[in-house]
Write a structure and sequence with these properties.
Layout (H helix, E strand, L loop, with lengths): L21 E3 L5 E3 H6 L23 H6 L14 E3 L5 E3 H6 L1 E2 L6 E2 L3 E3 L2 E3 L1 H6 L14 E4 L2 E4 H6 L14 E3 L2 E3 L1 H6 L14 E4 L2 E6 H6 L15 E2 L5 E2 L1 H5 L1 E2 L2 H17 L8 E6 L1 H11 L10 E6 L2 E7 L2 E2 H20 L7 H18 L3 H8 L4 H27 L2
Parallel strand pairs: 18-20
Antiparallel strand pairs: 1-2, 3-4, 5-6, 7-8, 9-10, 11-12, 13-14, 15-16, 17-21, 19-20
Helix pairs in contact: 9-11, 11-12, 12-13, 12-14
The protein binds zinc ion (8 copies).
Length: 414
């Protein structure tokens, strides 16, 4: 049996049964000829937009509009090519042509900020790493100094810190060096000039403090302890300059001298040394001391002498340079008292110099140790001149034979 029928086709737009010619699309939608010509077409799928102009969005049918990617700049739906950026946002070709681009992220920008000729979008302006020097957002090349970012502009135009190498608009001048704020804050300070230390510095074995290269080489040094002097120091009339620390313990007055002699004698008798004759003590200036030493015929460089022992028959004099700090004064006076002891006990007047001086240094060393002036005592220990040579002989002798035997040996050693 053959059944004959008519396929009744409805137009998707007007819902009327189509009589005559009709147009159909691959998705199965069908339009009558009239609707097809009369309705606006979607610019994407080319199909008639069923609701007419009112249903068209920017020339798209609603389905195509919803499916189409939207430009993040103009917010319009995009047909065809577009540009995608690192943050996944997209721009239509029109916007790419129409607007300037951000120099950091490359996106087209409607509103932007210009920094040193560079265009920055709002996002980049708030999110870009800032230069540690000019605090502008960094675009392109940059430098890192210990976790600090510096833009290429600042790196090229500003002077750099001599310590960390970072460029800075504000550098502190420290002698012939330049330091940034951070470096000058955290740098060690020179004990003389108080300025931050750049590079190497110096210290003194027996005294506290660290000193910058500038002070070590160019500042006057304390005549007592040898350390560089700061802005303030004590000027002694004989031309010496001494630091405040040395001044504080300096032996200057007759009373201080008496106190010193008392301490020295206590040390002298503790070693078992006895001096028969009376010793006359005097504090004198450096110049006068040099003069006395010259008169006595001793061959010692001027300015380096701290004390002198003189004997004329039974008359014994000890001269001590004034303004010596206590440890230096004690070491010196004990050395000279030891000479007095030798003058009474050594019969052989031709005893070699290194033995005489060595013995006196040994006495000085023992007494300095006894009173806790270990730093000053160590200076004797490290001497490598003729005094040091003789001193070592006595120190070795003491270790082997004890103090009592040493005193007997000192009288006859040659
Ligand atoms: Zn129709
Ligand atoms: Zn469409
Ligand atoms: Zn766009
Ligand atoms: Zn940007
Ligand atoms: Zn900068
Ligand atoms: Zn620095
Ligand atoms: Zn200094
Ligand atoms: Zn000093």
């Amino acid at each position: 049996m053959v059944s004959v029928g008519v396929i009744r086709v409805k137009c998707d737009a007007c819902k009327e049964i189509i009589k005559g010619k009709y147009i159909h699309f691959s998705d199965g939608s069908i339009f009558c000829n009239e609707c097809f010509h009369y309705l606006p077409k979607c610019i994407s799928c080319k199909k008639p937009i069923i609701g007419g102009e009112d249903s068209s969005i920017d020339g798209f049918c609603s389905i195509c509009y919803n499916r189409a990617p939207k430009c993040d700049i103009c917010e319009k739906a995009i047909i065809g090519s577009y540009t995608r950026f690192a943050d996944k946002s997209i721009s239509c070709d029109d916007c790419m042509k129409k607007y300037v681009k951000c120099d950091r992220c490359g996106k087209p920008v409607v509103r932007y900020t210009k920094i040193r000729g560079n265009i920055l979008c709002r996002h980049c302006l708030t999110h870009a790493t800032r230069c540690n020097v000019c605090s502008n957002p960094i675009i392109g090349t940059y430098w890192i100094f210990d976790k600090n970012y510096v833009c290429d502009y600042c790196y090229k135009i500003y002077e750099r810190c001599n310590m960390c190498g970072m460029p800075s608009q504000f550098l502190f001048t420290v002698h012939d060096k330049k330091l940034c704020y951070t470096c000058q804050e955290k740098a060690k300070r020179c004990s003389a000039c108080g300025l931050p230390i750049v590079g190497r510095y110096y210290s003194y074995k027996t005294k506290e403090g660290i000193f910058c290269e500038h002070c070590e080489h160019l500042a006057p040094h304390c005549d007592s302890c040898g350390r560089p002097l700061g802005i303030q120091y004590v000027d002694i009339s004989d031309g010496r300059k001494i630091c405040f620390e040395c001044q504080r313990s300096a032996v200057i007055t007759e009373e201080q001298l008496r106190e010193l002699i008392k301490t020295a004698n206590e040390g002298i008798s503790s070693l078992g040394l006895k001096i028969v004759n009376n010793i006359n003590y005097r504090l004198i200036s450096r110049n006068l001391l040099d003069k006395r030493i010259k008169e006595s015929g001793a061959d010692i460089a001027a300015g380096k002498n701290l004390g002198l022992f003189q004997r004329k028959d039974e008359k014994m004099n000890i001269y001590l340079q004034t303004h010596l700090p206590i440890q230096l004064a004690l070491g010196t006076i004990c050395h000279e008292i030891a000479h007095a002891w030798l003058s009474e006990n050594v019969i052989n007047k031709t005893q070699p110099l290194h033995l005489r001086e060595g013995f006196c240094e040994w006495v000085s060393y023992k007494i300095l140790q006894k009173f806790g002036y270990h730093g000053q005592a160590e200076l004797i220990l490290s001497r490598d001149d003729i005094y040091g040579l003789g001193f070592q002989k006595f120190l070795d002798y003491e270790k082997k034979n004890g103090i009592k035997a040493l005193l007997d040996w000192a009288k006859i050693a040659r």
